[in-house]
Amino acid sequence: MDTILYFAFTAAYILLLVWALAKQKSWNFMSFICLVLIGLIYDNGLIAIGKFIGEGPVLENLSLLRFWSHAFLTPMLVLFSWGALNRAGIGWVKKKSGFSCSDNLCFGIGRNRNCFGNMGIGIGNRRAIWRIAVCIG
Fold first, then answer.
1. What Å distances lie between residue 122 and 34, 60, 114, 119, 126, CA to CA?
2. Looking at residue 92, what DSSP letter applies?
3. What is the 3-state secondary structure (H, E, C) of 7-64?
4. CA Rg, the chain, in Å?
5. Model confidence over 56-108: pLDDT tens digits?
6. pTM
7. Do 41 and 14 touch, CB atoms closer than 8 A?
8. Are 113 and 133 in contact (CB under 8 A)?
9. Is 125 helix (H, G, I), strand (E, B) or coil?
10. Is 106 exposed, middle or buried (0-12, 13-18, 19+ CB in 10 A)?
11. Residue 7: CB partners within 8 Å, gap ≥ 6?
12. How far apart are CA 29 and CA 88, in angstroms?
């Protein structure tokens, strides 16, 4: 049952990405949603086909990109939100401090989600990365 749901989510995210790209007139901060959607398509698609791949090093290696996309693409939602608020005409967003706040929040979330360097874990230690990425993803 879960596999069917993840295939459905993947299809829905693909449709959302196509719709977002079709409606995109200019590339601005609201365009960051396309990056997030690409990450969601990969994430849910990999979960959906994971049952067919089976447990093992192949799925683990494919999942590394999933974990990195969570660390780097999820914070982009902050920049998308800033663009949406700016387009809606919210006053405090138009100030320089509003952008600086959202920019710092985005990169702060990304830095905190990417805790590999803080724990001194190298890329070669895949089991430790797997455990950490499951916790933060």
1. 30, 16, 13, 9, 8
2. G
3. HHHHHHHHHHHHHHHHHCCCCCHHHHHHHHHHHHHHHHHHHHHHHHHCCCHHHHHHHH
4. 17
5. 888 888 888 888 887 778 777 877 877 888 888 877 777 766 666 665 666 66
6. 0.68
7. yes
8. no
9. coil
10. buried
11. 48
12. 13
Task: For the chain, give the longest Cα–Cα distance.
Answer: 51
Fill in the DSSP letter of residue 95: S
pLDDT tens for 13-48 read 999 999 999 988 887 777 888 888 999 999 999 989
The one-letter amino acid at 25: K
> What value does the mean pLDDT of the chain take?
75
CA 107 centroid distance within chain: 13
- Residue 122: count of CB within 10 angstroms of its CB: 10
Residue type present at position 39: G
Q: What is the dihedral of CA 39, 45, 49, 55, to 10 degrees?
A: 20
CB contact set of 45 (below 8 Å; sequence gap of 6+): 6, 10
Question: Which SS3 state, helix, strand or coil, does residue 117 take?
Answer: coil
Residue 104 tokens read as 């710092």
